[in-house]
Amino acid sequence: MRSELFAKQHQEQELNQRWTMQSSRMVRGVVTPQEPMIATKGAMVAYQGNVNFKHQGSTSVGQFMKKAATGEGGQLMRVEGHGEIFFARMAANIFMMQLEGPQDALTVNTTSMLAFDASLRWDIQPLRGIGALTSGSGLFNLELSGHGTAAICAQGQPMVLDCSRTPTFVDPQAAVCWSANLAPDIHTDVTLGSFFGRGSGEGIQMRFHGPGFVVVQPAETS
Asked: Which of 16, 106, 143, 206 could form a disulfide with 184 if both were Cys (CB 3.0 to 4.6 A apart)?
């Protein structure tokens, strides 16, 4: 049988690594009994080997209370066993973030998270400000810290903005991830014109300012 699909660029990239990009829109993770993974539900598109998926429970009382109150963190699953898992989401672009120590921390919009090493610590962090106006997008996010790798997706080619020089304002639906130390809050530009149908539609933003970065996608997702 012959097909262009059998060309090398369409085949599994069999590198002996924990994480391997198969393309810009799919990543493969290798799980072993000693090194499980945590993934968001729906991120797995295929797997090979003896792999098990189960609900990822809370790792502390505080985390349990946050999950119960916000509903966030309930979409995580623990991946165990011995095999290879392929992660993707709606053909979105994927990039990897390597955290390299106890002081290394990253906050990720839950809609952009794919999977991460179980060695990373995770927690649910609320966004400061008038969260009721954000329609739930970016109101609660996952903070990762420690030593390990995370696979994150973006709708389109992501862009990194430096927030140390000047305040940076981002649409909550376009914010993918950011330095955990930035602690953004909600900023609003609601004016009288907004109440009469003449608003710009860009009245609510996340405000970042300080040493760090924010990754922005060229799309507004709900």
From this structure: 206
CATH 3.60.160.10 fits 18-216, yes or no: yes
Largest CA distance in the chain: 66
């349990």: which residue's tokens?
Answer: 64
What is the spatial distance between Cα 113 and Cα 106, in angstroms, rounded to a whole number? 11
Of 182, 187, 189, the residue nearest 214 (C-alpha): 182
Rounded Cα distance, 120 and 78, in Å: 13
Q: Is the sign of the CA dihedral 68, 70, 72, 74 positive or negative?
A: positive
Q: What pTM did the predictor assign?
A: 0.81
Provide DSSP, 176-197. EEEEGGG--EEEE---GGGGGT
Tokens of 195: 């109440």
* CA proximity to 82, closest of 61, 115, 46, 52: 52
Domain residue ranges of the chain, discontinuous segments joined by +: 18-216
Q: Check residue 221 and give its pLDDT.
A: 64
